[in-house]
Design a protein that fits this description.
Argininosuccinate synthetase, chain A, domain 2; single chain; 14 strands; 3 domains; alpha/beta; five-stranded antiparallel beta sheet; 13 helices; five-stranded parallel beta sheet; Rossmann fold
């Protein structure tokens, strides 16, 4: 089945992507497999992964540190869009996919490969995200997905790998399927497949149990510059450092856990556990700062576009004309989103308790009920008459 001569394989070091290497060569007649492992700040040691790919038969094994690119080019724009899929999931895993697709396409073009390969199965969202993003970036490239087609069970996959020198996992593997990067973790499968079963504490890594969280509240001050997080507790920090510190502070107070049944793109419902301590608080703080600096009509109109934006990203359409157009709108709205938000963290809760900005549209003399009031009270009656006129006319005609 000579589908391609030279391919670039998205490589994680797990069973499926390791078995992809001999499978591509022996079943599909691929001559040269180049693997690419993307470091998005997941904290794994990537040198053993690089070596494992070579041992499994890769001609070349690439490791790309793309953490900074991930945060600045993918995560920060999503924070500006207040992106929460189904009002809960901050896309921590989904946001990495268009970047990995971009790295695969760049590597394929550099090495003259005629196809890229991923290890996604047929039921998940990621296959769609990879296939569509790659098609958008280079429609001439073929996309191969052996795990979607080989029809082997987990046991058969391991046995196939052993036949060609891919070692089977030595320890009893965890029942969970876990994906992680700097922004968060997604956990599914095993006991979690029953939506009635409470997750065991072992599924969490970035967040403390509420029972173990500190007994005193903590306050964090997050500074934004044109919609991007740039300061933490008054200190200017680079993106990776800011997110890393915030994850640690927020997670310590038991904030950042999500347990939800979500609607996948492929039409099935899936029970997911997410941990995204820093990202959830950044979106919450950003949203609150916008309430201070954006006009009413922009705030309300942006809400609808945020929902569309989130669905586009979740559904694999990061590189699409509509997403690009919404990006332009969001960028325009962020010009005034500079200021500081104060968040109180306590026993699993994060509450915004203060916000300030040089661009604030909040006018104390208009809002006050005290003696400083400058609002023209006489204007109210005429305004209400005009505002209510259509309702009054309608009522007279239909009573």
């Amino acid at each position: 089945m000579g589908r391609a001569e030279k391919v670039v394989l998205a490589y994680s070091g797990g069973v499926d992507t390791s078995v992809c290497i001999p499978y591509l060569k022996h079943e599909w007649g691929v001559e040269e497999v180049i693997t690419l492992a993307a470091d998005l700040g997941q904290g794994d040691e990537l040198e053993p992964i690089r070596v494992k790919a070579l041992d499994a038969g890769a001609a070349e094994s690439l490791v790309m540190d793309a953490t900074e690119r991930f945060v600045t080019d993918y995560v920060f724009p999503a924070i500006q869009a207040n992106a929460l899929y189904e009002d809960r999931y901050p896309l921590c895993t989904a946001l990495g996919r268009p970047l990995i697709a971009k790295l695969l396409v760049e590597a394929a073009e550099k090495y003259g490969a005629d196809a890229v390969v991923h290890g996604c199965t047929a039921k998940g969202n990621d296959q769609v995200r990879f296939d569509v993003a790659i098609a958008a970036l280079n429609p001439a490239l073929k996309v191969l997905a052996p795990a979607r087609e080989w029809g082997m069970s987990r046991e058969e996959t391991i046995a196939y790998g052993e036949k060609y020198g891919v070692p089977s996992p030595v320890k009893k593997s965890s029942p969970y399927s876990i994906d992680k990067n700097l922004m968060g973790r997604s956990v599914e499968a095993g006991p979690l497949e029953d939506p009635w079963v409470e997750p065991l504490e072992e599924v969490y890594e970035m967040t403390q149990a509420i029972a173990d969280a500190p007994d005193e509240p903590a306050y964090v001050e997050i500074g934004f510059t044109q919609g991007n997080p740039t300061r933490l507790n008054g200190e200017a920090l680079a993106p990776i450092e800011l997110v890393t510190q915030l994850n640690q502070i927020v997670g310590q107070h038991g904030v950042g856990r999500i347990d939800m049944v979500e609607n996948r793109l492929v039409g099935i419902k899936s029970r997911e556990i997410y941990e995204a301590p820093g990202l959830l608080v950044l979106i919450q703080a950003h949203q609150d700062l916008e309430s201070l600096v954006l006009t009413k009509d922009v705030t309300h109109y942006k809400k609808g576009l945020e929902q569309t934006y989130t669905q586009l990203v979740y559904n694999g359409l990061w590189y699409s004309p509509l997403k690009e157009a919404i990006d332009a709108f969001i960028q325009q709205t962020q010009q005034q989103v500079t200021g500081t938000v104060r968040v109180k963290l306590f026993k699993g809760t994060a509450v915004v308790v203060g916000r300030k900005s040089e661009q604030s549209l909040y006018t104390p003399t208009l809002a006050t009920y005290g003696s400083d009031d400058t609002f023209d009270h006489k204007a109210a009656e005429g305004f209400i008459y005009v505002w209510g006129l259509p309702t009054r006319v309608w009522s007279q005609k239909t009573r």
